[in-house]
Amino acid sequence: MSQKLKIAGWISVGALAGALTTVSLQTVARSSALAPLPLEELQQMAAVFGMIKTDYVEPVDEHKLISDAIAGMVASLDPHSQYFDKKSYKEFREGTSGRFVGVGIEISQEEGLVKVVSPIEGSPAYRAGLKPNDLITKIDDTVVKGLTLSEAVKKMRGEPNTKVTLTIFRKDENRSFPVTITREEIRTQSVKGKVMEPGYAWIRLSQFQERTVDDFVRKVDEIYKQEPNLKGMVLDLRNDPGGLLDAAVAISAAFLPENVSVVSTNGQLPESKFVYKAAPEFYQRRAGSDPLRRLPAGLKNVPLVVLVNEGSASASEIVAGALQDHKRAMVLGSQTFGKGSVQTVRPLGPDTGLKLTTARYYTPSGKSIQAKGIVPDVLVDETEEGNIFSLLRTREADLEKHLNSGQGPEVKDAAREKLREEARKKAEEEARKPVAERKFPEFGTEKDFQLVQALNQLKGRPVLVSKTQVIESKLEKKEN
């Protein structure tokens, strides 16, 4: 792999709908020749700039005006491209370390408010009892309505051991209440796992981080020491918003034959046309021994089920797609988020930068992940009663100005909206139940319905397939 093609420094940052954007940091902008500039439009832009400077009701900072114009141009492309001014670029670079001081939530925006997609396990927000779909209406004394997502994030972050008060509106309980949270450095534990019962194990990845591969190897080793004769494993990627590309390639390689394709990328740039394979040179971040060499040999052949849902995005979709295409695992759960685009970050100077969508991801069989996601082999609901909220959840295809799959036009079906209306009614009925009855069980417990079905799949027992997703799956296949 040539130095030009070896895209290094993959990192994860929060993005819309809780999906983590996988990006490549490139230190040098491309120097290829630009097409002739549209002079007439540039003259109009200069004229508008001049009119605002001379005619607007009050003086305008010309640097801010130009910065906002650039930001608007980039934002018009898709939900994941972004212009970084001095302040936001500094915060972005700090965030690439994988550590930050804050409350520990993945967020999106809904009706001008900040929506909690998921509290990070073990974080201050998680301990304070924040839940998915909670709406943040105030941060300390600042009303959230009118703030951008990045502005809200800035207000929630701060110095360690300082306090921030969030006003929460919980829809299903129809009440607002304040929660005071002490900020701390967030270091998420991305790997959990255990032997569920003799012969069967569960291992969960909540994000793809720098430590994920080493932690995964350590956890698998623990499991095999406890249960040497493993008959089946469940790889749980539910609500995993993604992260590091090299970690996704490594986790895929842990289960796949060496050198098979894991994921490919394609875009306008020559270096964006690339195939990542299940080999150390495609995932090893540091010199030294391959961390996967420490894995038990049996992992390559152990029967495997991958659990996914609407919150599985980006890197987790890469893993699910690779294992599904190579028929290494049965994918079970709900259709994934559909975040299948690559963002490249390039400096524009010493303290500004551009995060730009430069490629799409494709599974080994050539299917685009973008705005489609991974459709499971077996559709299974969250609970025995059904997947009450699945159609109400935001996916990549629901985001304004989202990039299409690049494999034919998107087909909108009126039946999907009808299904969504039915789901809204079911959600309202669910909201009228006592709180204790509405709480979904924690992942990895004996009451985790999807996990129980995954274990049934491994044992060759009947699986209770979805009551609510069959029609939606047909619609997705019709679109494909």
UniProtKB/TrEMBL annotation:
Family annotation (SMART domains):
PDZ, TSPc
Q: Which UniProt keywords apply?
A: Hydrolase, Protease, Serine protease
Q: Name one Pfam family in it.
A: PDZ_6
Extract the InterPro entries matched here: ClpP/crotonase-like_dom_sf (IPR029045), CtpA/B_N (IPR055210), PDZ (IPR001478), PDZ_6 (IPR041489), PDZ_sf (IPR036034), Peptidase_S41A (IPR004447), Tail-specific_protease (IPR005151)
Report whether Transferase shows up as a keyword of the record.
Answer: no
Which organism is the protein's source?
Ramlibacter algicola
This protein's GO CC annotations: outer membrane-bounded periplasmic space
Q: Which CDD domains match?
A: cpPDZ_CPP-like, Peptidase_S41_CPP
**Molecular function as annotated in GO:** endopeptidase activity; serine-type peptidase activity
What is the recorded name of this protein? S41 family peptidase
Q: Which SUPFAM superfamilies match?
A: ClpP/crotonase, PDZ domain-like
Which part of the chain is the PDZ domain? 89-157
What does the similarity note say? Belongs to the peptidase S41A family.
Q: Which GO biological process categories is it annotated with?
A: proteolysis; signal transduction
